[in-house]
């Protein structure tokens, strides 16, 4: 019996009176799929998470933590961990990405900042997995493993690999020195829903306990939409002022805080380039290739600003030359 048949059988048990319909809602970069169920009492979302590839328990745990913090997350209506199904409340059809424009951005991001601060204020150690050095390094290694080797079909020289590892160590050192809070890890326009209360927060199952600037970098250095730097600076100042007022452990010097924000973004962009390449080459998902140029632009911009990141910028220049010679273009 395939997953669709299993899901339908399970839904018959949840809605025994019948009269319900089901249609695809969305998919993400993992093996999870989502379906919208319309019944007499309204709509719900079914998460289909094949248990051999996905574990629903982290989603349930983080949903409880974020809900207790005051964030608007899906309610878990029913669960079947053995088969890998969750029935969730429906936060609607409209993502931030669909409605963000010059006129709506300030209000939407204001709400996103408010929700993020609520989540961060609820943070406690030893509740979520640590965003430790091993995880940071493993994520950054996605760049040579998948973006450079597989996507660009380039082989790093020994000196280039040493440059990369030295830079990764500097980035990890900065990231690990930051105060720690709950980290959503994908707090951006595709996972925030325009809802009431706003925003609805999705896709948080990979949450960890780590650097305080990470989710802010996800939000304002979004791989799917970009803004003028002056505007991002204003939003970062707004967050920083609110966070300080709320008692969060942000750096008292805004310049240092913004530097941490940018260096955290560098780690994320290194990781995301590797993930997008892996999604294409391993999983056959080519929809993320169009987002690579924006992520690379973020990375290069930050490397241009900080002397310690100049070796990485030079390496990227060398790789682009190799890319051009090989005939690749993105």
TrEMBL record:
Domain Aminoglycoside phosphotransferase, chain residue ranges per copy: 21-239
Q: Which domain of life is it from?
A: Bacteria
Record-linked Gene3D superfamilies: 3.90.1200.10, Phosphorylase Kinase, domain 1
User: Per its record, what are the GO molecular function terms?
Assistant: ATP binding; transferase activity
- List, alphabetically, the InterPro entries matched: Aminoglycoside_PTrfase, Kinase-like_dom_sf
Q: ATP-binding among the record's keywords?
A: yes
Q: Could you say which residues form the signal peptide?
A: none
Listed A to Z, the keywords are: ATP-binding, Nucleotide-binding, Transferase
PANTHER family from the UniProt entry = N-ACETYLMURAMATE_N-ACETYLGLUCOSAMINE KINASE (PTHR33540:SF1), TRNA THREONYLCARBAMOYLADENOSINE BIOSYNTHESIS PROTEIN TSAE (PTHR33540)
Q: What is this protein called?
A: Aminoglycoside phosphotransferase
Natural source organism: Sulfurimicrobium lacus
> Lineage of this protein's species?
Bacteria, Pseudomonadati, Pseudomonadota, Betaproteobacteria, Nitrosomonadales
